[in-house]
Amino acid sequence: MSVQLRADTPPPPIINNVDILTPSVERFGKFEAKVDLTASYSNPFDYDDIAVTATFLSPSSVVKNVDGFFMQDYNLNTSSGNLTSNGMGGFRLRFSPDEIGTWSVVVFVTDATGTGNSFGYQFECVDVATSANHGFVRTGQTNYLNFDDGNQYIAIGENIAWQNNNPYLNYKAWLDGLIENGGNFFRLWHAHWGLGVEWSNGNGFAGLRSYKQTNCYYQDWLYDFCAENGVYIMLALQHHGPVSTNVNPNWNDSPYNVANGGPCQNTIDFFTNAEAKAHTKNRYRYIVARWGYARSILCWELFNEVLWTDNFQANKNLVADWHFEMAEYLKSIDPNQHIVTTSYGGDLDDPNVWGHPDFDLTQTHIYLNTPNIERALASSNLSHLEAFGKPTLNGEFGLGGSANLANADPDGIHIHNSLWGGLFSGALGTAMTWWWDNYIHPRDLYYHFKGISQVADEVPFSAKNLAPATSFVTGAPGDLLLTPSLGWAGIGESNITIDENGVVTPAGAALGQFLYGSQWNTQFRSPPTFNVNYPAAGEFAVKTGAEIGTAPKIAIFLDGTLVLEQAAVPNANYTINVPAGSHLIKVDNTGTDWTQISSYAFAGLGSLVDAYVLVSEGKNTAAGWALNNSYNHQYVIENGIPAPISSAQVMVEGFSDGVYSVRWYDPLTGVLYGGVEAVANGGILAIPLHPFQWDIAFIVDDSPVAIEEKRQNLEFEMYPNPAVAGSEVKVDWPSANEPNGQLLLLDVAGKELSRTDIFSKNTKSVTLQLPAELPAGLYWVRLEGEGEIGAKAMMITR
Predict the structure, then answer these.
(1) Nearest Cα to 374, choosing from 431, 459, 297?
(2) Residue 788's pLDDT band (boundaries 50, 70, 90)?
(3) What is the pLDDT confidence band of residue 389, given thresholds at 50, 70 and 90?
(4) Looking at the DSSP assignment, which residues form a beta bridge with residue 676?
(5) N or C: which end of the chain has fewer CB within 10 A?
(6) CA 645, CA 694: separation in Å to the nearest integer?
C-alpha cells in the first residue's frame, strides 16, 4: 500500500489493485479482498477522513453496498495465544454472499479530494460445504428464531463476556467445553478490559476513532471459529460503566469525557451530544464493515444494562431516542440485517423501546438468591411475550450478585433447572448463566448443556409455533410457592387469582421482592391481593428475606379482616389458617419502611411438581418439562435428594380432543426412555408422567412412537446400598432384561463419575467399582441398554 500525506493540492484518490483472497466462497461464507490504494488521509479508521466502499452485484442483479475497513494483520501462535505483527496494515473488504453463482464487485475510495474507483472484479459463490453453515439467524412469524435455510435456531449457552488473560487460550478452552456438550450461544461484551475496540489512550487504545487492532484480530479468529462450529454470539456494543459514575463506574476514564479529550461534559451528553453520536456511528460502521459478514454474530446488542447509566429514570426518553437512532443506523449500514436488541437489567425497562419495530427481541437479566430461580426466569419470559409479542431471552441470571452464591451449589442444580425452565417457558433459548470463568468452567458444569441440546433438536418449536400454555399437575399434591422477582422500585401485580388446581392468573405474574411501608417510599407500594380457592382447609404464609428497612410490619387480611399484624424481622414466617373455599388474602406492610419478601406459600394449593408446557398453534402438539420442585440446590444440600414422584399427570388446557403419543426424555442425558398414550377430552390433555426423581421432559404429538424406539424402565438391584467409597457394588437385573450397554455412576447433579461397558447380552450382573476418593453423600447408579434405561439413588459412606 502506498500513502500520500496531505498537501496543498493533493491528487484524487486511486485504487491501485484489488487482491481477491477468496475467488471461491460458499454461500453465507466469508469473501475477503485486500485493497491497495493511494489517498490523502490522516486517520484510516475515520470514515469522514477516508472511506473505502464496495458495490456487489449478485447473479440475479441485486445490488449490495459494503464498507471497507483498515486493519493490521497478525500471526496467531496457537500454543501461546500471542500475536505478532504481519506487515504494515492496509484496507480490506469482507462480504457474505447469499446467492450461488458469479458475483461482481467494484471498489471505491473517497477522501477530501474526491472519489476513485477500481475495475470490476468477479468471484464465485458455491453451495454450502460447511455442515454448521445454515446461514444467518433471523426472526420470523413465531417467537423463535430460524436460519436462512429454514432450520430453527434454539440458543443454548451462557455468558462469556470477556477473557481473563489471553483471549485465544481463554475462549478456546471455554468454547471447547460448550461445543462438546451441544452449546451454541454466548454473549460477549465490547469492554475495554475485554475485547472492546475503543477506549482512552493506553494498553493499545488511542482514543476515539482509533480501534485496538489486537482485540480486533482476536475477534476475527473468534467469529470464524464460531461459524465453523455452529456457535452464535450476542455482541454487546456498549456497557453501562462508561456512562456511569455510580454503578461499575468508568466515566472518569472514558474517551467521551471532556476531561480525556472527548465531547461530553457529563454522562447524559453521551446520548444527546451530536459529536458523541457521530463517534459512536463511526465505531458501528467499522464493526459492521469488519464483522458484518459473520453469520456467527446472532445480534447486535446496543447496550448492556442501560438502566445503570446515570439518572436513567430522569433521562429515560433521551436514552430511548438514542436507541431508536442507533438501531435505525445499524440496520441502514448492515447488509446482512443482523438482529438488534439491547438490555436494561434489574426490573426497569422501557416498553417504548421493546415495542419498537427496530428491536427484534427482548431480554431480561435476573439475579435472585432463591431455591427455585427458574420460576422467576419463566415469569419474566411469560410477561415479556405477553407484553411485546416478540422473541425473548433470559440474557443473564445468577443466584444474586456474587459467584460465591453459585459455588454454594457445586453441582450446578440451579443451572440445570434454569436452562430447562427458561426454554420451556417460551423463550428463544435457555437462560444464560453469568459465572462462566469462576463457576461453570472450573467446576466443569458444561455437561448440563448436553441433555437440553439433544431434546431441543427433537422439539418443533418454530415449525409448530409453540407457545406457553396453561397447565397444572395432579397426583402429586404439595404447596404452591410464589417467588418474588422484581427488584427495588419494581411494581408487582396487585391482584392475582389462584384456582383450586394452583393455576395462577395472570400467568407469570410478577411480585416485588420489596413490600413497602406506609410512610416511606410509598410511591412504590403495590401490596398484593390473592383471590384463592382452597379445596380443603390450609395455611397461607409470608416469608421475609434477609434484609429489612426501618420498622416494617407484616399485615395479613383474610376476606377484609386483619388477622395478623406483627413486626417484620429477617428470614421469618408469618402464617394464617385459611378455611376451605374462595377467599381474598391481602398482604401489606403497615410499618414505616420496606421489608424484603422471600416467598408467598399456599399450603395444599399446589403440587410437588412444577410443569412448563408449550402447545402448538394447531393445539395438537405439546412439549414440556416437569420438575420435582424440591429438587433444588438448597433442598438437596440441606436435606438430600427428595422423594421420587411416583404418579403424576400434567393437565394442559386448550388442546384438541383425541388420542396422542407421549415420548419421555431424560433431561440430564437427552435419552428417549419411554412412551405412552395420552388422551385429550373436553379440551384438557392429560399427560401421564413416568416416575422420576428430579425431572422429566416430554413431547406430545399424533405420531406413534415405534416400539423399537421406546426405552422401557430397566429394573435392577444393587447391593450393598449404602456402600463404602472404594468398595465394590454388585448390580443384578432380571433375565428378561439384557442391557448390552453401560453402567454409569453419576453425582447428585448427574455428572458422570465412572462408566463400565457391558458387552455381552448374556450378562445378568456387573460389578461397579466405587472410586476411593468419593466423598460421602448421595449418588446415582444408571444402567443403560438396548431399548432400556434405569436409574437408582445410592448412598456412599466413608
Answers:
(1) 431
(2) low
(3) very high
(4) 662
(5) C
(6) 8
